Amino acid sequence: MKNLYGKLTELLRGMKTWVEGFADRPSAGWSLFAIAFVESSFFPIPPDVLLIAMSIAAPKKSYRYALICTAGSVCGAFLGYFIGYALFETVGRPILEFYGALGQFEVVLSNYRENGILALFIAGFTPIPFKLFTIAAGFNQTLDLTTLAVGSIVGRSARFFLVGSLLYFYGATIKTFLDRYFDRLSLAFVILLVLGFVAIKFLA
Asked: What beta strand segments (E) does the chain contain?
């Protein structure tokens, strides 16, 4: 168990370092937009990692970075929708299989039929995998593109601006905390992702 935990922590630390490496580049804003964009449809690493790194380096720009993150994520939601609508068998299904989420897919479709935009908002704000909902939206076509945009904007902006606000006011303190407790936070992050998949079953 300890070996598994160690390998998992090492993997997450490596991914964190790789993503944070974009924060020092002149194109950091575009990198943040790009990661937020692809995370909404297939990429496994949440843009919060880069958002935090950039905001810690420049706390007064936290809201600007949160806005970039939101814009990228919302645009990426349309890519996820397109994958579900036109490329489900060739692209969408392999993505869901990679995340082991095919079992939850029918539940998500049911959530859309019963809860509509509320399900999308919850997925956008919480650790529930957002890509699963954007792909399902296109596949199910219960939500129109306007509803997809509104739900994505509300859910994603609430999440990223909350992170941005914390870093705006407590950037230095949070950096010290993250560096000190990274191993424990990594484990908590994985647990939250797993709980995100589990929580899907209770939204119907």
From this structure: none
Place of tokens 């484990």: 187
First to last CA, the chain: 34
- Residue 159, token pair as written in the block: 């999440």
pLDDT tens for each residue of 87-100: 999 999 998 888 77
Chain-centroid distance, C-alpha 150: 17
Q: Which long-range contacts (CB under 8 A, 24 or more apart) does 167-171 make?
A: 167/52, 167/55, 167/56, 167/59, 167/62, 168/55, 168/59, 168/60, 168/62, 168/63, 169/59, 171/55, 171/56, 171/59, 171/62
Q: What pLDDT does residue 120 have?
A: 79
Residue owning tokens 């299989």: 97
The DSSP letter of residue 90 is I
Confidence of residue 204 (pLDDT cuts 50, 70, 90): very low
| pTM as predicted | 0.77
- The 8-class DSSP code of residue 143 comes to S
Phi, psi (5° rounding) for residue 104?
-90, -10
Instruction: Name the helix (H) or strand (E) containing 2.
Output: helix 2-20
